[in-house]
Amino acid sequence: MNANTLTRREQILSCLSQQNGLLGIVAIWDANGFSVLTEGSDLLLVMVLEDGLAAPATSHYIQEGVRIQERRISRSSFETRAASHEDRGILHWMMQGDIWYDAEGMLARIRMDLENYPAIVKQQKMLTEFSLFTKRYLQCKDFLVEDQILDAYSSILRAIHHWARISVLEEGIHPEVTVWQQVRSYNAGVYKLYEELTTSQETLRQRVELVLLACEFSVMSKMETCCSLLVRILEETGQPLSVQELINHPYMSGASSSNLPLILNKLARKSIIREVAVATDADCFDLEIKYSCNLLSPQG
Questions:
Q1: Which of 2, 81, 220, 265 has its CA 20 to 30 A from that of 48?
Q2: How does pLDDT run across 189-230, given as a tens digit for each residue?
Q3: C-alpha to C-alpha distance for 284 and 243, rounded to whole angstroms
Q4: In what order do the strands lie in the sheet with 66-74?
Q5: Closest-CA residue to 47 (of 67, 17, 72, 79)
Q6: CB neighbour class for 166 (10 Å; exposed up to 12, middle 13-18, buried from 19)
Q7: DSSP conformation class of 49
């Protein structure tokens, strides 16, 4: 941090620290001229305030030629968004910003939690990304059958984007918006597929089909690891669970459930889990489909 930056920090802090209920300030500088991270400002100041003392607000101003944006966020909102590990804005601010003020050490604790990345959160994210990856690659197959090549290309590009995020998650690291820059360091094979899809001299159909084959192999090889959270739930519960019961399980609170039936079906087909037909009523012939780990015996 150079002398000018230190002086500006002191000036801003001397002004903002007087604000009632201020708990912390995270500062993010724009090093590239126009950064999405700072929302177009030269300096973004994220200010965390006690609940009820100030409504969430955004303000812009210029100070000695520097464009500054202030974002005021309540403590409960900030902590909730950080704990979800889903809010990319919060993740980037906390991992790349400078903590200028931290009255109770809250910001330091949140940063430490994000860096440590709890195992359950990693499993939730892996399951979410894998379900999205699977959905997109299957969409690609459907589009190819229909000869909708541009839609197939769009779907497979999105599929390998989720694959790239899985590769970063496997390293215990948060995927960033610039995930392709990250994945070059951790999975050169996925990055190579991205290059072949986007820059190869083959026809568009040939490129899509090549990457689709690689995705199909990846589904087979990564399914058990990426879906370990579901297997864990079934093992710990000790009884067959329906789709809705799995969705409602506390372990699933941070994972997307929109594609869960698709994933459960694939896990059952590969004998990673078991599909169980359970009678819902003694006088009813309908059987509800539930799922169990392979250690359980079928019921119903």
A1: 2
A2: 999 999 999 999 999 999 999 999 998 888 788 898 999 999
A3: 20
A4: 57-63, 66-74, 43-49, 22-29, 98-102
A5: 72
A6: buried
A7: E
* pLDDT, tens digit (0-9, with 9 covering 90-100), for 225-272: 999 999 999 999 989 999 999 999 989 987 888 899 999 999 999 999
The letter for the amino acid at 103 is: A
Alpha-carbon gap, residue 211 to 216, rounded angstroms: 9
Q: What is the spatial distance between Cα 156 and Cα 36, in angstroms, rounded to a whole number?
A: 26
β-strand pairing of 287-292 with 274-279: antiparallel
CA–CA separation, 52 and 121 (whole Å): 30
Burial category of 110 from C-beta neighbours within 10 Å (exposed 0-12, middle 13-18, buried 19 and up): buried
Q: Is the pLDDT of residue 62 over 70?
A: yes
Q: Is 103 helix (H, G, I), strand (E, B) or coil?
A: coil
Out of 80-84, 123-127, 202-206, which region has the weakest mean confidence (pLDDT)? 80-84
List, in order, residues 6 or more apart from 240 with CB less than 8 Å away: 276, 278, 290, 291, 292, 296, 299
> DSSP assignment, residue 240?
-
Q: What is the DSSP string of 16-29?
A: HTTSTTEEEEEEEE
Mean pLDDT of the chain: 85
What's the sign of the alpha-carbon dihedral 237, 241, 246, 248? negative
